[in-house]
Amino acid sequence: MLQGAQLLAAEVSTDVPSPIGLAPLVILLPLVGAAVLLLAGRRSDRWGHWLGLAASVGAFVVGVVLLVGLLGQDAEARAYDQHLFDWIPAGTLDVSAGLRVDPLSVTFVLLVTFVGSLIHLYSVAYMEHDDDRRRFFAYLNLFVAAMLVLVLADSYLLLFVGWEGVGLASYLLIGFWYRERKNAVAAKKAFIMNRVGDIGLIVALMLMLANFGGVDFATVHAQAPAASTGITTAIGLMLLLAACGKSAQVPLQAWLGDAMAGPTPVSALIHAATMVTAGVYLVVRSAPVFEAAPDAQLVVVIVGAVTLVFGAIVGSAKDDIKKALAASTMSQIGYMILAAGLGPIGYAFAIFHLVTHGFFKAGLFLGAGSVMHGMDDQVDMRRFGGLSRYMKVTFVTFGLGWLAILGVPPFSGFWSKDKIIEAAFVPVDGQEWRAWVFGTVALVGAGITAYYMSRLFFMTFTGRRRWNDGSGSLDGTGPQDGPVRHPHESPALMTAPMVVLAVGSVALGGLLAWGDTFVTWLEPVTGHAEHGEPVLPAWLLIVLTLVLVLAGIALAWRQYTVQAVPVVAPHGNALTRAARRDLYQDDVNENLVMLPGQVVTRTLVHADREVVDGAWTGLAGTLGLLGDRWRRAQTGYVRSYAATMLGGLIVIVVVALALAS
Amino acid sequence: MTTFFAPTVDWAYLAPLVVVLGAGVVGVLVEAFVPASARRATQLALALVALVAAIVLVGTLWTDVTDQGYVDVLGGALRLTVTTLGIQAVVLVLALVAVLVVADRSADGLDAFAPTAAAVPGSPYEELARRKGLVQTEVFPLTMFAVGGMMIFGATIDLLTMFVALEVLSLPLYVLTASARRRRLLSQEAALKYFLLGAFASALFLFGTALLYGATGSVNLEAIAEALAQGGAGGPTAGMTGMVVVAVLLLLAGVLFKVGAVPFHVWTPDVYQGAPTPVTGFMAACTKAAAFGALVQVALYVGTGLQAGAPDTFRALEVALCVVAVASMVVGTVVALPQTDIKRVLGYSAIAHTGFVLVAVLGLLGRPTPEAGVDALGAVVFYVLAYGLATIGAFAVVTLVRESDGARDGVVLGEATQIRQWSGLGRRSPWLAGLFALFLLSMAGIPLTAGFIAKFGAFRAGVDGGFAWLAVVGVLASAVAVFFYVRIVVIMFFADAPADDDAAPRPDGDALVPDVPVRAVRPRAPVLVALVLCALGVIGLGVFPAPVLNLLG
């Protein structure tokens, strides 16, 4: 057990100083915004979006006040539980609604409100031609409020309220364009798969109640270290199940890709920057529980590792720009979950990566939205190409986000992802095999990430035009089939947030890593971690990572810029042809990675569609069939009803008699 | 010569009951003496005033009863405790809202009841009554009688009084079930089924009472508990284990029938579907509240007695109740999935909810002493309140979604109860559909609704009583239940008419709907008030449940 004793470094105080007392306002502003927009109806159509934006910006301002308030305190004193009201008093249990203000929650508050505000701004333009723009902003505000409840709650029960709230908002937003059946189905799928994860959280709540007699963080975290390992492991695994559902980790990952049916700003905010990272928050927040359950921690790491590879491979095969980004999100969250499973050494880096990822992934999604805006909602990357000439701002901001996610120094992602890879190489409890296995996975994952992100970037912005420019030119530079596109740069309201996020992608990581600022800031929550020694020297890891990243970029460059990209996606055997074309390449290593990689890709994509999806629909189908069978028992004849009652009664009596004697 | 001792009656504690039953009696007189034109208004006013007065009276009794712990009236014919008084209050509040729905005539200026329920459906006499514009205002006194019975049913520890109360509450319900204005044959069939099966259940209850009397020499639950506690070898019930088991199970069967627990649930879907919808709401909410009051009384006293005197028997009964609870949750949830009729979905969901409340009841049994079970009792009362509000609200919405006759200028016809007819409702009537979604989400137990707090309380009571596994089954069942609640929401908001394949008519079922236009009627005063009250209750109890939970212990 690493530094377990040093967790809870800060005493949680309930005596709240004045600036911190503003915390409820953070939630209230967007909540009131949502309420006004929903209740005022069509009357607020003209100004509704500005109100929504104002509410979000207001929440951000309050968040900054909270930050300043916390910074004004000693590091050890930066944790407050603010009691709001008695919520569920029942016998021995008193659950009160309260807010936990500490570095971790404030970090999330700032991330959610800042990125949220930018996306509100972007949406003003993006949704301009939508009749229901006001409703969209109402849902966005609702989401922000729910997300803030989630991260500010001081008990698992109130966290659950936010948890369900973001699920609901996500559901409403995915299905926003509900007139298309596919979107409604995707919304339903996301909602239902999330409920499966929610069961985990509810069962964890039950276990906490039964064993600790409370569900607030203070009680649970104080008692977890003394509890039996069996109990903490059970709670930990249930929390992990919840995290898997919300954060699209294997095996509950299938909904995220479909969720891309929602408007792109939604994908940026909810399905990239904030909501999907709630699982990471949950694991880090529950650190004392996981510290007392090494087995659960190991499962966390495994889930993270499997997902990061899974997402990366799927991302390499998707042609839909948003789905590729979604797979990438899944994979990056895999990194965070992996880090969170490593214990105190990883918590801070998990959150660090979460923050930087929030910036560059939101930027990438907004960039994708901008491309779609310019290309009349086309999402097939095989129909892009050479767009850098037409949308310069998008190209540059997207490019910076791309460099950040690749982990190229000195961009943001480098500072956070590299630390995770390094932490993964540190043996846990002296078990070197874990360091080698998970470290290697994280390292290789970085290489694949570089490949698929570069593929995405090159297919979109470089190479030849693969869309119809309507010129009818016969010079053979591009296809003349398909609808005519007039790619153009998006309006300033859209590009401004992209620029801001790009600045974050460039500088935020380095800024926060400077002198370990961010890690020190989080220490009151995550505990101080002694610097563990990785099994390979740190400089070598950085070099290895960079080599793999460069290899990934080079491979993608050759495939998608130097060589022509087919407009129509090659199917099964075409994939094999592609594999064969690479087989005669001189680099043997490459071939050894590529062929299995493509087979695995195909299998995984197939498995994702057939097995995982099939299992879910199968479950629903089985229940439906069962229901249908039992429904038939309801014949409508009183005599059969009476017989059912009598028969049931006799069975019960016989059972009871047998047990009683 | 025997001296006659006049019983001392503490009228103050009977006051709420006297008011309600008195209003019923006066209502009958109103039928006889008030001119037809003023009758409906008089009846409605009488019922509402009586219910409000009774609520106020229960409120005045509250501190008195909580201070004393419990108050016996007429030797246990009525035993008022926080729980039983809570049940009475819940029944009254729910009845008040339900009466508003019963009185509603938003749709076409007509209420939900047949002009003369006694007429043969389709007969010239019925047609005449319809044309004369007769109104069956007897529904109000009938409702009041039922409410009176419910108030006694959930608050007595005397088994014979309990039986009488059972009949007092059931008979008006049978009649009310039979008196739907539309689909009269379905309504009468439902009533007959309800009556026959109800009689069957009553017989079981009575038989159980008789056997228990045979074993313990009393029909008073407290005395029964004492006798059972001495139980075992040499005690009053020595050698009668089998008899006690059968007696208690028969007794429970009678009550479980009223709450609609599997396998005594068979009547629920048919009756819910056939009864006039306002009555369904009333019946679903109030009967369940009262019957759980009775169930808790039986479980509490018999359980305490057996726990002390015959632990083995106690375990056996716990297992029996567990079986019933699990079966209710599973059957209710799973069979609700393929339903195509909204009233039947709500009927099956009622069965599942019964299972959830049973988790709390079992949690009560699991406590070492009855005093330790206060929060479980509170959980039961809170649950029936939360469920009742959502249910009455949901059925009230159902009364407003009507088929209309395109050929005759959109004249409003009967209710559109096929789920697929509800598609797109969210766009045409966002408020109504929003309210319905709210009630469904509360039933699904989504946070910040009363249903969430209720489920949380019930499962917590189960966990605390040592039935964590039962709570897990409950959580799983509610997760599956979300499927059918959300399906309706999806159809309302996200589907275009004609809807989803899921809800397509089945060739073998009763779901062959003619394609008639569906529209939501604009709610007018009574039902609007009821809807607003339900919505406020569902949200209020979800966000600030503390005051109510504090009151309940």
TrEMBL record, chain A:
- InterPro entries membership: NADHpl_OxRdtase_5_subgr, ND/Mrp_TM, NU5C-like, Proton_antipo_N
Write out the GO biological process terms. Answer: ATP synthesis coupled electron transport; electron transport coupled proton transport
Major localization class: membrane
The protein's matches in NCBIfam families, at most eight in alphabetical order, are given as: NDH_I_L, PRK06590.1
Where are the annotated coiled coils located? Answer: none
The UniProt keywords, alphabetically, are: Membrane, Transmembrane, Transmembrane helix
PANTHER family for the chain: NADH-UBIQUINONE OXIDOREDUCTASE CHAIN 5 (PTHR42829)
Q: Which GO terms describe its cellular component?
A: endomembrane system; membrane
Q: Does the keyword Transmembrane apply?
A: yes
Domain of life from the UniProt record: Bacteria
**Pfam families with a match to the protein in the record:** Proton_antipo_M, Proton_antipo_N
State the protein's name. Answer: NADH dehydrogenase subunit L
Q: Which residues form the NADH-Ubiquinone oxidoreductase (complex I) chain 5 N-terminal domain?
A: 87-137
* Bilayer disposition of the protein: Multi-pass membrane protein
Q: List the transmembrane segments.
A: 20-39, 51-71, 104-124, 136-153, 159-178, 199-220, 226-245, 266-284, 296-317, 324-345, 351-372, 393-415, 435-458, 492-515, 535-557, 641-660
**MF terms (GO), sorted A to Z:** NADH dehydrogenase (ubiquinone) activity; NADH dehydrogenase activity
The NADH:quinone oxidoreductase/Mrp antiporter transmembrane domain, residue ranges: 153-425
**Where, per UniProt, does this protein localize?**
Endomembrane system; Membrane
From TrEMBL, chain B:
Tell me where it resides: Cell membrane; Endomembrane system; Membrane
What are the protein's UniProt keywords?
Cell membrane, Membrane, NAD, Quinone, Translocase, Transmembrane, Transmembrane helix, Transport
- GO function terms (MF aspect): NADH dehydrogenase (quinone) (non-electrogenic) activity; NADH dehydrogenase (ubiquinone) activity; quinone binding
Membrane topology term reads:
Multi-pass membrane protein
Enzyme class per UniProt: translocase
Q: Which Pfam families match?
A: Proton_antipo_M
| Any single biological process term in GO | ATP synthesis coupled electron transport
Keyword Transport belongs to the record: yes
Record GO cellular component, one term: endomembrane system
Query: Where's the NADH:quinone oxidoreductase/Mrp antiporter transmembrane domain?
Result: 158-479
Which parts pass through the membrane?
A: 12-34, 41-62, 82-103, 139-157, 163-180, 192-213, 244-267, 279-302, 314-338, 345-365, 377-401, 431-454, 466-486, 527-548
Q: What is the reaction catalyzed?
A: a quinone + NADH + 5 H(+)(in) = a quinol + NAD(+) + 4 H(+)(out)
Chief subcellular location equals membrane
Q: Report the EC number(s), separated by commas if there are several.
A: 7.1.1.-
| Family recorded in the similarity comment | Belongs to the complex I subunit 2 family.
Assembly mode = NDH-1 is composed of 14 different subunits. Subunits NuoA, H, J, K, L, M, N constitute the membrane sector of the complex.
HAMAP family referenced in this protein's UniProt entry, alphabetically: NDH1_NuoN_1
**Entry function:** NDH-1 shuttles electrons from NADH, via FMN and iron-sulfur (Fe-S) centers, to quinones in the respiratory chain. The immediate electron acceptor for the enzyme in this species is believed to be a menaquinone. Couples the redox reaction to proton translocation (for every two electrons transferred, four hydrogen ions are translocated across the cytoplasmic membrane), and thus conserves the redox energy in a proton gradient.
What protein name applies here?
A: NADH-quinone oxidoreductase subunit N
What organism does the record attribute this protein to?
Answer: Sediminihabitans luteus
- List the lineage, top down: Bacteria, Bacillati, Actinomycetota, Actinomycetes, Micrococcales
Identify the gene encoding this protein. Answer: nuoN
